[in-house]
Design goal:
4 helices, single chain
Length: 120
């Protein structure tokens, strides 16, 4: 596949549990050696390895590869910039989750306070 293909033009991801490196290569429009290189550069990309050290990618791996591909080929990020962008995204998700937990705890504490105020 030519590298000018945008993520929106990539084929749909089939409803399988595992994909070989060849299948992922076709689904994401990058060569297998590029996928192996990205595994070294992006710590979040860890396909399952089975007998003979064969790689088996899961759906979330394919989505991550497409995101990496978009950052590098379409948005013009360097490897380091793409890695930083992905880690920043994870940090934002963690922050959002933490804020939800804090709101929940505050609500529960306010309920406890109301119960304590009602007791004689």
């Amino acid at each position: 596949m030519p590298e000018a293909v945008h993520n929106s033009e990539l084929p749909a991801i089939p409803g399988k549990r595992y994909f070989t490196i060849g299948e992922v290569s076709e689904l994401c429009g990058v060569k297998p050696h590029v996928l192996r290189y990205w595994e070294q550069e992006f710590p979040s990309l860890k396909p399952v390895k089975r007998r003979g050290n064969r790689r088996y990618y899961q759906r979330q791996d394919v989505l991550l590869i497409r995101q990496i591909r978009s950052l590098l080929y379409e948005q013009g990020y360097t490897i380091g910039g793409a890695r930083q962008q992905l880690s920043g995204q994870a940090a934002r998700e963690d922050l959002n989750q933490s804020q939800q937990i804090i709101r929940q705890m505050r609500t529960e504490l306010e309920e406890v306070l109301q119960i304590l105020r009602q007791k004689p």
